[in-house]
Amino acid sequence: MPEGLSTPEVAKHIEEHTDQAEGGQPGGRDRVATVVEAALLAVVAVLAAYSGFASSKWSTESRLDLARSSTDRTEASSATSEADTNRNFDSSTFSAWFTAKVAGNESAMAIAERRFRPAFLVAFNAWLATNPDTNPHAAPGPTYMPQYKQPEVHTAAVLNAKATAAFNDGSNAAGHSDDYVLTTVYLATVLFLVAISGHFSLIRARYALMTVGVIILAFAVGRLVTLPRPNF
Length: 232
Hints:
Distance between the termini: 17 Å
Largest sheet: none
Number of strands: 0
Number of helices: 6
Structural class: mainly alpha
Strand content: under 5%
Radius of gyration: 35 Å
Shape: rod-shaped
Order of helices and strands: HHHHHH
């Protein structure tokens, strides 16, 4: 699970800067720098906590979507397998009936018809109604008739569509989680710059580091504003 900056860690840096301000009794410019550094650390603490939380939520959402996609894909595969099994059974029973018909064995034809599935029998009767023995335009067999329905095929198509949509959602959620992790990295960079700025005695160096930190912070805030928010 992606992690952001820990609030206690940032609070420790704020406390260290406060101690430096009180113990070192800095002058005007030093005091301003210390206050700005503490303010930056406070802002980073809040934003990093949110960024880490959002990354975690999107990561969880991604796993759930991918799990749903896998489940739907498995069910679609089962429906497809069931459809293939039924079609093979219909073909075998029809082959037995056709063989008996060619042989003129009406008893065997009747036995074969009793083995027909109800759904196949509807298509079979519709096929017989087209007079296939004399009609050259008749369908080759009952499975070619519009009355031959396989609801499992439709079910499989619907489940495959749901699986694809869930997979895409999971992939997008994973991308959002990575974006928040990258934003947390930017915030960690700000924390690093502010943390080391207090070790410089030259006030210009401290302001330079803070300026870079503010720029990076502004960029991180811009990313947070544009990134999609997780579902709470």
